[in-house]
Specification:
Structural class: alpha+beta
Shape: globular
Number of strands: 7
Oligomer: single chain
Order of helices and strands: HHHHEEEHEHEEEH
CATH architecture of the largest domain: 3-Layer(aba) Sandwich
Number of helices: 7
CATH superfamily of the largest domain: Glutaredoxin
Largest sheet: 4 strands, mixed
Strand content: 15-25%
Helix content: 40-55%
Strand order of the largest sheet: 4-3-6-7
Number of domains: 2
Low-confidence stretches: 22-37
Distance between the termini: 84 Å
CATH topology of the largest domain: Glutaredoxin
Length: 212
């Protein structure tokens, strides 16, 4: 009985048909993935999926857990220079005495794309506070790509391009990485990777820092 099933032509035909269908499905997946990569849309797709994960609350920026007793910036650190999207040259010293939210990102980085709307929301909620600044540092090799990205998304928050090497206290190997600098110049928050910065606890913590 067992041998008759193995030699059954209908059974063999079904197996071949299933194998052929699986091959076609994988070819289709590879073609779609290749097209997304070549057009650059894979960043948007992956970023959208990761943004959906942010909505679950898994990646909340928990300041009560993530606060750090980091270093104080030096006078040399405050010499760090960057340009605004409008081409104006600014130094970190111009922000001295304010709470500074620093985010290093790139338009080709899916986690950066995913968390950017949460930073936009945080910025919109805090832009009236005079003692809070946002320093969104793009590391795109071609600044025009960052400009197109921000314009396409309709983000109103400021963004910047480094002119000199980042201060040692603000260097990292992961994109995105976020720091918060207190009014006294101390790094009090650092997070590598994606997070949701739009939650109320993080916003209130930033406001509390600005009022100290």
């Amino acid at each position: 009985m067992r041998n008759s099933q193995k030699d059954d032509p209908a059974n063999n035909t079904g197996k071949k048909s299933g194998l052929r269908r699986a091959v076609y499905e994988w070819v289709g997946i590879i073609v779609v993935a290749g097209a997304l990569y070549l057009t650059g849309l894979h960043v948007e797709v992956i970023g959208t999926l990761q943004r959906a994960m942010l909505w679950t609350g898994i990646f909340n920026a928990k300041v009560d857990v993530e606060m750090t007793d980091g270093p104080f910036l030096t006078d040399n650190d405050y010499n760090f220079a960057f340009t605004t999207s409008g081409g104006e040259t600014v130094r970190l010293a111009d922000y001295r005495g304010d709470v500074i939210f620093v985010n290093v990102w790139a338009s080709w980085c899916p986690p950066c794309v995913a968390e950017m709307p949460t930073i936009e929301k945080l910025h919109n909620n805090l832009q009236e506070h005079q003692n809070i600044r946002f320093l969104m540092l793009s590391v795109d090799e071609e600044p025009e790509r960052a400009v197109r990205f921000m314009e396409r998304r309709g983000f109103s928050m400021p963004y910047h391009f480094p002119l000199t090497q980042l201060p040692h206290a603000l260097q990292g190997s992961v994109l995105p990485t976020t720091w918060v600098i207190s009014r006294e110049g101390q790094v009090v928050y650092r997070r590598e990777g994606i997070a949701d910065y739009s939650n109320r606890s993080f916003r209130n913590w930033m406001i509390g820092l600005s009022e100290q």
